[in-house]
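Problem: given the chain below (713 residues), write out its structure.
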Amino acid sequence: MYISKVTLLNYRNFANANFQFQKGINTIIGENGSGKTNVFKAIRLLLEDASLQFAYKLTEGDFNRKLDKNKWKGHWIIISIEFDELNNEEAIQSLFIHGAGIAEEDYVKKATYNLFFRPKADIRQKLSELAEGDTVGLQTVLDDITIQDNYETFFTGKSTADFNDPALYKELVGDFENVIFPSTIDASKFGSKIPHQMSVAKEISFTFIQALRDVVSDFHNNRTNPLFTLLKNKSGEIKEADYRPISDLVNDLNASIEALPDVQNIRADIKSTIQDAVGLTYSPSSLSIKSSVPDEPEKLLQSLKLFIGEPGEEYEGGIHELSLGGANLIFLTLKLLEFKYRKSKDTFANFLIIEEPEAHIHNHIQKTLFDKLDYGDTQIIYSTHSTQISEVSNVENINILAKKLNYAEVYQPSTGLDPENINQIQRYLDAVRTNLLFAKGVILVEGDAEEILIPIMVKKVLGISLDEFGISLINIRSTGFENVAQLFHSDRIQRKCAILTDLDDAICDITEIADDSDALKKYKKKVAGSQKKGFARKVKLDAFEIGNAWVKAFYANYTFEVDFFAEGNEWEVIQLIDQVYIDSPTRHRSKTDLGDDDVAIHAKRILTMANQEGKGWFAIMLGKHISYKTVIPKYILDGIFFAKETYSTNIIADIIEYRISKNFESNNALDFTICRAELLKYRNGGIILEDLVFDIDLVIPGDQILTLIEKLK
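Solution.
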């Protein structure tokens, strides 16, 4: 038995979310604030016995933020968990047949367990009695609703409905826009009530390991100390008679300490001093000094402490002396052992939920630990920010959270892919490339030069890094673009993916003539071959893009290096001549070639320089000369603006402010007074972006910022 699906409606930052899970190990990844903790809270409300009480204490703050300012009134919070592969044991079948199961054959194989936080019966009755379209009457009913007086928590099972379907939500809850509310609920579709005493949480083994924050404090607190929890679990299996010899020894020890001459002398001195000070009438009737070494089993266990030695050290110290990573690793280990103890009991299923376990733990330990984290008969779900952990995750078992305005979306990256495609992606997603699963947008390149220079150009020219944009730039190298880009699709990851590649158009006339030398013929054939491959690449990518709005290819007319030069970046390339060539004649000829307007001449020289140094190293050399004056090639800018769909006012203003500052540093005679005043108005929402163009164009006509504004308009 395992959790196959979790549906969340109107719960916290989930307006309408659908999580898909598999047997074994599952991963949830997403940026801060995307809802990883909230989905765990939702699961815990239904499956963690200790959290069941909080299911009856939901508030208006638990509604999705789309329903703020009293818009939540009348709406329902729905948390639904679907179980799969129930076995035919009588005990489990009796629970789900009478509770949450859907009996299609001889026994229940699938079951649902739902939490409805909904208006009470009297409110639902009033809503159902409203005439269709009676918006005034609806508002009157809603105005009087309060969470404390008019809402209830209700558990159901046996539902067959797809709660993610907006039409079914209207059928169950009501149509607020048209004022149509149901008078009755179809229990066969939406589920029948499960008595409180039949809670699924009481029949399973469920362990939640929260995010590792301050584990040293947790060790000092008996309520949260995992060592004490383990000892208590084990001590419950030891007979009281086994503790009796220890208790007797402790009592003898206490008596021996109390009988020490110094202890008795101090006792006598305290008593006589009190009598001398206040007299016999006001002195205590008795006074003793007693040893308080505990003899009760639980208090004896509380006195036990864990001592650990760091790897490669002989010293053994307390938890507080360990590094943060060492303490976190020990804490996590003890919690995993606690889970092992729990799951050994006779339960229907075992669930282990781990929240962001990577804090302060070394990358290699993260990868090794979670590569080995498999308990066979246990479903494990963990959330993470770590690319090391996500690298060892099965792509079929990943849920990706995408943060939107007031809500989050959930994507499953393998949906609709055949096993061969999934296997390709699984092999490809190493710790570096797994970044694309965390990004707001993705740019795919296939060369070292692009991987090195594009981030440098963006930072130097725009003043904002690709990371600040939320864009991951991934070098696919020899892997075909399609193998990676197939992840981005309406059925899978709904994020934009820009492909930057070369058309490899011929930089010279490739027609062979009789007078051509053998070397020239060979060169022309090489250029023609590149052009043919470039054309075939475009045909293939054009076909791949059809019907997929999330992927688009952008092309350099020739190659990255040639198009970089053609955008007006001659100066940057010329700076490398003295580094690439030693002898003066070649240096001179190279400068002449780079100054030639004929693409056949300057492009050949650029590519010769790049190939001689190696394109990656050539890019590193070129990167040292990139500045705000460098012009980003148009196809690269187009790819960036495709990959990131929206830009906040502040980011745009920061880019403009950066360009103004850099231009002023270069020429302090420029007067940006009006531009800065208008920019401040734009930041504060006083004017629109187009209003800035005129003033900027007057001061720095032709600057790249004008091109950027045009793209952003």
